[in-house]
Amino acid sequence: MKNFILIYFTSILILTAQENKLITENVYYFNTSLNLDETNKLFDNSFTNSTNAEVKKYHQITIKSINDDIVEYTYLTFNNSEYSKIYNGIIYKLPLADFEKYTNPYYGRWRKFQVGAYTIPFRIRSKNKNFEFDSNLSLGANIIKGVNISRFYEKGHIDFSAGIALTKIDLNEDNSSIKDIDDELKTLSESALTFSLGITINFNEYANFGIFYGWDFLDGNSQESVKWIHNKKPWVGLGINVSFNNNSNSTTQQSNQAKPVDKTK
Questions:
Q1: Residue 150 pLDDT
Q2: C or N terminus of the chain, fewer CB within 10 Å?
Q3: Phi/psi at 264 (5° precision)
Q4: Please, what's the largest Cα pairwise distance for the chain?
Q5: Contact (Cβ atoms closer than 8 angstroms) between residue 92 and residue 71
Q6: Which residues of the chain have pLDDT under 50?
Q7: Element (H, E) at 227
Q8: Would you say the C-alpha torsion 171, 177, 180, 184 has a positive or negative sign?
Q9: CB atoms within 10 A of CB 11
């Protein structure tokens, strides 16, 4: 059996903290629907140019400016002729407190690239159709590109990663030919270069599940001497990921991060 199980623990340091601010030119959506009477009461005659305008859940808007705690915004262009006559090209105004209450960020499909450090302390390798358990220390870095499962919620995304690491390999007479070097040797440690690919499903900030595929490479001279049986052989495994990354997302508009609005004066 040439499939392997990898228990993969990842720890990534928070480099930046999320800000609870709105950003102009970012995309937001209404989180509730209001009928025309409720809309006019809420907006206090903000819809003077469009008497039929109503707040519709999931309609997307872009902030144009924020002045004196008033948010000016426009709707994303509607192709529907019924909606285009009502919403397209019109600047609406809403008090900042109400805007924050009735809208949420609309996240981009793709998340920004991240770089993280990880360790791989445990592996189960294939050996003559059986499994061999290793407790190896691996330290390196991976590049991560994420995709949001939903554009209406920040939590819940899939990460694709590629990594490179240095791994401490414990050699013994069962997995190598160290006895050819010295009959007295029982164990020997070498360093291997590890390449890996992974997919991690992040259900929320606490529960993550990953599948990984990788290879360990001993230096040519070292491998010639010790003849490690797992050299350059792929492993496939399941992973548990613990992440402390900033989970800011890209949006569909000009800004690269979706953050709830800057109270510009």
A1: 87
A2: C
A3: -70, 140
A4: 92
A5: no
A6: 1-20, 47-49, 247-265
A7: none
A8: positive
A9: 12
Amino acid symbol at 250: S
Q: Report the C-alpha gap between 99 and 9 in whole angstroms.
A: 40
Alpha-carbon dihedral of residues 222, 224, 225, 227, nearest 10 degrees?
Answer: 100
Long-range contacts of 32-36 (CB under 8 A, 24+ apart): 32/57, 32/102, 33/57
Question: Where do the DSSP E strands lie in the chain?
Answer: 5-10, 27-30, 60-67, 70-75, 92-95, 103-105, 107-111, 114-127, 130-134, 138-148, 157-172, 187-202, 208-218, 234-240, 249-251
Query: CA-to-CA distance for 29 and 61, rounded, in angstroms?
Result: 6
Note the pLDDT tens digit of each residue in 221-230.
889 989 999 9
- The per-residue pLDDT of the chain, averaged, comes to 76
Residue carrying structure tokens 């499903």? 201
User: Per-domain residue ranges for the chain?
Assistant: 5-14+109-248, 27-108
127, 97, 131, 99: which is closest to 30 by C-alpha?
Answer: 99
Q: Is the pTM here over 0.90, yes or no?
A: no
pLDDT at 102: 93
Confidence (pLDDT) at 13? 29
User: Half-sphere exposure of residue 23, counting CA atoms within 13 Å on the CB side?
Assistant: 22
> At 24, is the secondary structure helix, strand, or coil?
coil
